[in-house]
Amino acid sequence: MSDQPNIPAQSQDLPGSEAALQPAAEMIRDGYKGADKLTGKVALVTGADSGIGRSVAIHFAREGADVAVAYLSETDDAQETKRLVEAEGARCHLIAGDLANADTCRATVAETIEVLGGLNILVNNAGTQWVNTDLTTLPDAQWEDTFAANMHSQFYLAKAALAHMTAGDTIINNASVNAYIGPDFLVDYSATKGAIIAFTRSLSNQVVGRGIRVNAVAPGPVWTPLQPATLGAHDPEMVENFGANTPMGRCGQPSELGPCFVFLASRDASFMSGQTLHPNGGIVVNG
Fold it and tell me: Considering its fold, how many domains does the chain have in total?
């Protein structure tokens, strides 16, 4: 992928549908060859019904991992992710539920272990956002809901997962370039992503002595259903030519994010913990 896709103005309802995305996003590049980097591993990927999470699940499967896919409510998209993961020869288990709820997070980890036999890789990818351009009008409930979905879920899931993790296992948290650039229309979302960066660094320091690595990925604009379901729901014109203002002049594709997560999950990143990767189209964030 090197050219900006022709992205028209569009909108969706939350949580968004991969099947309705125009144009379709690329999940894995033609010619991507697995190298058994995750053979024998079990991964739990949240928000993997679509977007970055689906790409991560497919890449992990091609590298040999079995994958639990946690999602909110988009059953059709989740079933397609399952089909794609199983087409790679991996096992895939779907788990629906609202990860803003602590009990759901604990149950999700427990079900992953019960069905797939363990948990070696936790990818905290699920999240949401809403547009607001004036803090004085930002509803208290929206602030709380954004933190519950984006940040609290990562705490609940990591807390539950760490009780079962041992040396060589890893946690990867999905943050955002917005934690560094602070767009004025996503104050609450950006605040959660900044918290995720700090959470990643501190948790890494807490568990790295056990041989468990914790890292983050901070994507720039990536073409996923979240964009038309949030930016587009506010104003369909906001997603027209989405990402064209990056130094590369285009948005990213999920296929360009999946390999970042493979790297951090594998022994290739054995000397990395508490760090953040920045696949963002050339935006310099100095973070």
Answer: 1
Residue 93's φ and ψ, nearest 5 degrees, are: -125, 130
pLDDT of residue 103: 98
Sheet holding 42-46, edge to edge: 92-96, 66-71, 42-46, 121-124, 170-174, 213-217, 276-277
Distance CA(260)–CA(135), nearest Å, equals: 34
Residue 10 lies in a domain: no
Mean pLDDT (the chain) is: 96
Q: Determine the straight-line distance between the first and last CA of the chain, rounded to whole angstroms.
A: 26
Are the C-beta atoms of residues 199 and 99 closer than 8 Å to each other?
no
The DSSP code for 284 is: -
Q: Which structural domain, as residue segments, surrounds residue 179?
A: 42-228+252-277
Please check whether residue 4 lies inside any domain of the structure. Answer: no
Active site residues: 189
Question: In angstroms, rounded to a whole number, what is the distance separating the alpha carbons of residues 168 and 253?
Answer: 29
Q: How far apart are CA 236 and CA 272, in angstroms?
A: 40
- The token pair at 18 is 């991969």
Provide the whole-model pTM. Answer: 0.96
Positive or negative, the Cα torsion across 186, 188, 191, 193? negative
- pLDDT per position as a tens digit, 135-153: 999 999 999 999 999 999 9
Give the CATH number for residue 206. 3.40.50.720
CB 130, CB 173: distance < 8 Å: no
**Cβ-contact 119, 93 below 8 angstroms:** no
| pLDDT 10s digits, 83-139 | 999 999 999 999 999 999 999 999 999 999 999 999 999 999 999 999 999 999 999
